[in-house]
Amino acid sequence: MSFRGAIFDIDGVVVESPHERAWRETLEQLLLGEWSDVRDQITWSAGAFTTDVYKNLVSGKPRMDGARAALEHFRVPDVAERVGRYADLKQKQIVDLIGQGEFRAFPDALRFILDVRQMGLSVAAASSSKNAGMFLERIDLDEFCRAEGRSHAFVSTRMSLLDLFAADVCGRDFAQGKPHPEIFLTAAEELGLSPDDCFVIEDAVSGVQAAKAGKMVGLGVARLDDEAELLEAGADLVVTSLDDVDRPSLGRGEVARRSG
């Protein structure tokens, strides 16, 4: 049985986004400014919001959950009263950075999306981020195909990556965020497919856990040197580049590494 659908997380899988930067800089702004009175009570210091903190506590989660996790990690007091302020300021920062073009699409991800679409699979976008659509609508597939010397009948002039997805459930207020599978189950449903018809492409531990909780095949993309963590979370295959995924295997309902 071959796959019929591919469900993509966006931040970290398709796009190298400034989310980590926005979370880090916004917290620093608050703790050096309006929250400076609590600095002697917390474990935060300049440089303490590392990539490991981001990927282990924040990445893949809905905005409020990520903000709460970061504040709790650094033992910021009165989290319930502060979490909304942190989340709101981070959102303003990320919108500004996107508007300034401070992001890029991963070429291997675009090639992979085009290849699975060429194979006849339906594709869905399923990110917890409410900003995912802003990234996707700014990625010009037609321009990418010209640069890569590719031609696809389903890519039209000035077509954005957002236009290619048959379902987009990004940023919805689901009752439960990842690692609960609700977002991926909804994406499969909106593609008109059952979960076992689909595979999920994720870069975050919580996302892989969500895919497996939904009884889906999980393909992990280790862009942050976290292969071991993604495998431990249950990923069926982990690669550092989606160019390394064997395309013909997808036609057999498997995710496998390209030989050689």
What is this structure's SSE topology?
Blueprint: E1 5-8, E2 15-16, H1 19-32, H2 51-58, H3 63-73, H4 79-99, E3 104-105, H5 107-118, E4 122-125, H6 132-136, H7 141-148, H8 161-164, E5 167-168, H9 182-191, E6 198-202, H10 205-213, E7 217-221, H11 227-232, E8 237-239, H12 247-250
Parallel strand pairs: 1-4, 1-6, 4-5, 6-7, 7-8
Antiparallel strand pairs: 2-3
Helix pairs in contact: 1-4, 2-3, 3-4
Question: What key phrases describe this protein's structure?
Answer:
alpha/beta, DNA polymerase, domain 1, 2 domains, two-stranded antiparallel sheet
Per CATH, the architecture of the largest domain is 3-Layer(aba) Sandwich
Task: Quote the beta fraction.
Answer: 5-15%
- Count the domains: 2
Largest sheet features: 6 strands, parallel
Query: Which structural class do the helices and strands define?
Result: alpha/beta
- Look up the CATH topology of the largest domain: Rossmann fold
H/E element order: EEHHHHEHEHHHEHEHEHEH
CATH superfamily of the largest domain: HAD superfamily/HAD-like
Number of helices: 12
Strand order of the largest sheet: 5-4-1-6-7-8
Instruction: Give the beta-strand count.
Output: 8
* Overall CATH class of the largest domain: Alpha Beta
Radius of gyration: 19 Å
Taking pLDDT < 50 over at least 5 consecutive residues as the criterion, the unreliable ranges are none
Ends distance:
25 Å
